[in-house]
């Protein structure tokens, strides 16, 4: 059994300098210039084919519990793409929509269409459900805490990130969202009451909540909006916990 555990445990690519060679590129002089519209279109098409390839999906599945590794894999793909086309900086790919906002091909491209925001994380190494359940138990007596299920971040039919993470399609009717929410609460013993966003994505449009975010509303006013870390894109749940405790102590709640 010990030998099997060693074989099945993926290596820690988050701290491995060789992770940049997940997708190798022949060494050549790279340009800092901005590519043409047609080149950007080709980049996005190539990035899509790599991301959806069976080998990359299997890799995402293998590391589905390691958020840092997932980030390394996706960043490596994008860096490989720009270098493959002879350019140096990954922002050439990431800024495609801002450079060509009216181009129909780019607006409908897989990477652009489903990449609403950088993927967020909870504290590294900690189950999101366990931590949110703990937050709920700590403050439920003083505040009303709710979770709102919005559009899937990595739906199986839109932006898959391995079969483990991407286990459902993007709901197209409200009943599908409701069913997903019920299944999630039951499967993961999620304790906080859960609401479901409308199919017009009213909550997300109003609060910018994709893929997930934390808010505090008091007397009808938004008084706190958690922001992920600038470099880790993760939320410090202890900081959020402390802010809530301090807030209702000040209000004598």
UniProtKB/TrEMBL annotation:
Annotated coiled-coil segments of the chain: none
InterPro entries for this protein: Iodothyronine_deiodinase, Thioredoxin-like_sf
Gene3D superfamilies (alphabetical): Glutaredoxin
Segments traversing the membrane: none
Positions of region (Disordered): 1-20
Family (UniProt): Belongs to the iodothyronine deiodinase family.
Matches recorded under PANTHER family: IODOTHYRONINE DEIODINASE (PTHR11781), TYPE I IODOTHYRONINE DEIODINASE (PTHR11781:SF22)
Chain's role: Responsible for the deiodination of T4 (3,5,3',5'-tetraiodothyronine).
Molecular function per GO: thyroxine 5'-deiodinase activity
One GO process term, biological-process aspect: hormone biosynthetic process
SUPFAM superfamilies hit by this protein: Thioredoxin-like
Alphabetical keyword list: Oxidoreductase, Selenocysteine, Thyroid hormones biosynthesis
Protein name as annotated: Iodothyronine deiodinase
Pfam families cross-referenced by the UniProt entry: T4_deiodinase (PF00837)
């Amino acid at each position: 059994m010990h030998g099997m555990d060693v074989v099945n445990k993926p290596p820690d690519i988050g701290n491995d300098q060789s992770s940049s060679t997940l997708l190798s590129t022949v060494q050549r002089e790279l340009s800092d210039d901005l590519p043409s519209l047609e080149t950007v279109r080709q980049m996005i098409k190539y990035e899509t084919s790599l991301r959806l390839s069976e080998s990359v999906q299997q890799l995402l599945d293998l590391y589905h519990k390691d958020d840092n590794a997932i980030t390394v894999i996706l960043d490596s793909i994008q860096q490989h793409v720009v270098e493959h086309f002879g350019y140096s900086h990954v922002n050439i790919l990431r800024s495609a929509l801002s450079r060509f906002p009216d181009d129909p091909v780019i607006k409908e491209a897989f990477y652009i269409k489903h990449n609403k925001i950088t993927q967020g994380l909870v504290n590294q190494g900690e189950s999101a459900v366990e931590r949110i359940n703990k937050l709920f138990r700590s403050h439920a007596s003083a505040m009303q805490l709710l979770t709102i299920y919005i559009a899937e971040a990595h739906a199986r039919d839109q932006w898959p990130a391995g079969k483990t993470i991407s286990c459902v399609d993007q709901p197209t009717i409200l009943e599908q969202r409701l069913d997903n929410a019920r299944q999630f609460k039951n499967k993961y013993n999620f304790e906080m009451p859960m609401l479901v966003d409308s199919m017009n994505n009213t909550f997300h449009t109003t609060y910018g909540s994709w893929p997930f975010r934390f808010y505090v509303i008091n007397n009808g006013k938004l008084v706190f909006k958690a922001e992920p870390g600038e470099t880790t894109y993760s939320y410090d749940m202890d900081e959020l916990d402390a802010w809530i405790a301090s807030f209702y102590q000040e209000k004598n709640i």
